[in-house]
Amino acid sequence: MDQILTCVNGIADCANKCLGHVGDHLFLIFGLLAVAASIVMVFAKNAVHSVLAFLGTMLCIAACYFALQAEFLGVAQLLVYAGGIVVLFLFVVMLVELSKFKEGRIFQKQAPLATLVTFAGLAGFLAVFGYLIFGQGAEKALTLPPELAEGLDVAAHNAQAISRGLFTGYLLPFETMSVILLIALVGAIVLAKQDRT
User: Fold this and answer.
1) DSSP character string of 103-132
2) Could you say which of 73, 85, 92, 132 would form a disulfide bridge with 188 (CB–CB 3.0 to 4.6 Å)?
3) What's the DSSP call for residue 137?
4) Rounded to two decimals, what is the model's pTM?
């Protein structure tokens, strides 16, 4: 009986060590899955498959947030991106049905301009990325103003800290994003109506 208990304890210790190592590397695992899903999203030939790969990317990014113990950001990622924006993308893809011939003609005319814009955007991104990563860091971390953080342990209550910052200093960008999403939805409906008439 003692040998069985020793064996079971040994198996449990081994499992805890293995799961502990996996838990330490969850961010890396989900990060690599997010990169793989984003590559599938870019190179998928079917638009619906691309949107589903985008959903996989957003789910993996939410899991990365959970691995970093940023629960509020993880839930917001699930609700906003995986829930709302993916449904909006699917709605647009299903409504705006362009034939392969039309797509070919449109993309052939836009290819030189799209290439130029892509390289200009890539150069701008690399310049900003290089400045942010290799430039001089900020003297102090981004924090809430003292009057907003009063009576709040930011490390323990990250959801309350984010909501206080979001609905005070960043209310205008937050509302602007909702208007942009509404415009995209109305634009998809208008394009679909014009295509069908």
Assistant:
1) HHHHHHHHHHHHHHHHHHHHHHHHHHHHHH
2) 92
3) P
4) 0.55
